[in-house]
């Protein structure tokens, strides 16, 4: 059963343009979290919880790392939360990625923007299974890019694409 829990913010860091990393502590969630799952975070004033992926777990410390980009009202408010404050969280939510990989097999991970954080947790898990990991990451622009150095620890080959998506408003 998914339970509502309090997570204490241990650290908040700005890691790229409009993008923040938070270290959250809750031993139960850290114990259960699997790659591909997310936290459903209650933001004061917002009716619906906002889903944010689990980017990393430290079970010994009982902590979870999340990364989020400010894209609207909820994430803008979340960016004001700081060390020592509590978050009301439902989770871990979702089934997670399949993790049964052939030993010494190869896998290609593709992620763009805020789709990159769950790839880190997945790559870390697959690397512990002796998997050959290749990654293709995409970001809007260089100033929005993050996690490249961290991912390189687990990835054999990595390609980085910068691609701004222009949406024509007259269509
Ligand atoms: C499973 C899952 C995992 C996710 N993991 C992450 C993660 O790890 N990190 C992360 O940063 N994000 C993640 N997201 C995305 C994140 O949940 C959203 O960015 C967040 O919920 C947006 O909430 P908000 O209140 O900030 O923005 P909202 O106010 O909901 O707005 C979001 C976007 O929609 C636009 N918008 C809002 N209302 C309208 C409207 N009426 N008409 C047109 N456009 C509108 C806004 O301009 C904005 O660009 C994930 C989403 C899912 C489903």
Automatic annotation (TrEMBL):
Domain of life, source organism: Bacteria
TM ranges: none
Occurrences of domain FAD-binding FR-type (ranges): 2-99
Name this polypeptide is given: FAD-binding FR-type domain-containing protein
């Amino acid at each position: 059963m998914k339970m509502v829990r309090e997570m204490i913010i241990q650290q908040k860091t700005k890691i790229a343009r409009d993008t923040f990393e938070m270290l959250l502590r809750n031993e139960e969630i850290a114990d259960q979290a699997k790659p591909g799952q997310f936290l459903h975070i209650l933001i004061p004033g917002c009716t619906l919880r906002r889903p944010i992926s689990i980017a990393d777990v430290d079970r010994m410390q009982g902590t979870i790392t999340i990364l989020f980009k400010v894209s609207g009202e909820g994430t803008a408010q979340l960016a004001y939360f700081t060390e020592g404050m509590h978050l009301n969280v439902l989770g871990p939510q979702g089934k997670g990625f399949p993790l049964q990989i052939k030993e010494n097999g190869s896998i290609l991970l593709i992620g763009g923007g805020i789709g990159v954080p769950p790839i880190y947790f997945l790559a870390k898990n697959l690397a512990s299974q002796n998997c050959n990991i290749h990654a293709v990451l995409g970001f809007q622009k260089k100033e929005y890019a993050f996690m490249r150095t961290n991912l390189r620890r687990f990835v054999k080959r990595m390609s980085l694409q910068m691609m701004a998506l222009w949406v024509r408003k007259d269509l």
